[in-house]
Amino acid sequence: MPKKRTTDKDLPERMYRKHGAFYFVDRSGKWVRLGANKADAIMNYGKMLQDIKTVRSVTMQQLFDRYEREVIPNKAPRTQQDNLEQLKKLRFAFNEMHPADIKPLHIYAYMDERGKVAKVRANREKALLSNVFSFAIRWGTVEVNPCQQVKGFTEKPRDRYVTDAEFWAVHDCGSKLIQIAMRLAWITGLRQGDILDLTYQDITDQGLMVLTAKTGKRLLFEWTPDLRGAIDDARGLPRKVRGMHLLCTESGGRYTRTGFASMWKRTVQKAMDKGTLTESFTFHDLRAKAGSDSQDDHLLGHADQRMLNRVYKRKPAHVTPVHLSNMPSAKSATD
């Protein structure tokens, strides 16, 4: 039960007189000034209670619904898909809670549980939840973002480098379409989604003009014999219906992410069964191969050199060992 007042018994609950003014004290202990005049303070008190009631009536489910309706559609298609999957996990945990009731300890509990099976995904889901709260602040639903006080899991960048021999081992087991997609990935460093999005309109006299889906950055890949050969092979793919995409399905449509992933998985497994490949790799690893093999640091479209070096430069650094024969004490060391 709340503690009985010993003073200011004429004032409503959580309203106090201090230093010649009236204040409202919320459940966190924060003092909010209502005014120096009692009548004005009572009026402001009523407005504040109404605002609190309105905020308390909003659940995380409603907040997620609004975010999904107003924010997610403005993101890149791949990001939209990822966010919708992440929202499913967040909804399961937080749907019935009120935004103002969510504290860092609740988010840490979620992270600990998700981290048992997927630390990286837990980080991405926390990042999305943080963005949801940022918009909640903008919409006047909450005043603070509890995610800002929650530290994510430390992530180790993937270091799988695909050798030339491994590339050709999988390439030779793939269909003509898979082979062309692989070559384009190595030549350009484009993401899978951008390769599947390539259309005939992207082919210009100057080269291949691509608007990347993730960053919205426009890249012009100048013509080289390898690039022109891959594009010519794509144009020559037999199709019953010729669609707008370079790598289209038999019916002329764009390959879906899951459809292409299934073909890729079968191709890699075929190389494994054949014995020409001993360790599998993802199609996205080819982007890192392109970044590692290229001398052009602008190839992948990253403005931040640190990101390029940390994530995509996967070749071992070549170092020169010490020449002991040049050292003054080399003779005694080798005798």
UniProtKB/TrEMBL annotation:
InterPro entries with a match to the protein in the record: CB (IPR044068), DNA_brk_join_enz (IPR011010), Integrase-like_cat_sf (IPR013762), Integrase_catalytic (IPR002104), Integrase_recombinase_N (IPR010998), Tyrosine_recombinase_XerCD (IPR050090)
Keywords tagged on the record: DNA integration, DNA recombination, DNA-binding
Residue span, Tyr recombinase domain: 157-329
One GO BP annotation of this record: DNA recombination
Example GO molecular function: DNA binding
Transmembrane segments: none
Stretches assigned to the Core-binding (CB) domain: 58-137
Assigned protein family: Belongs to the 'phage' integrase family.
Stated name of the protein: Integrase family protein
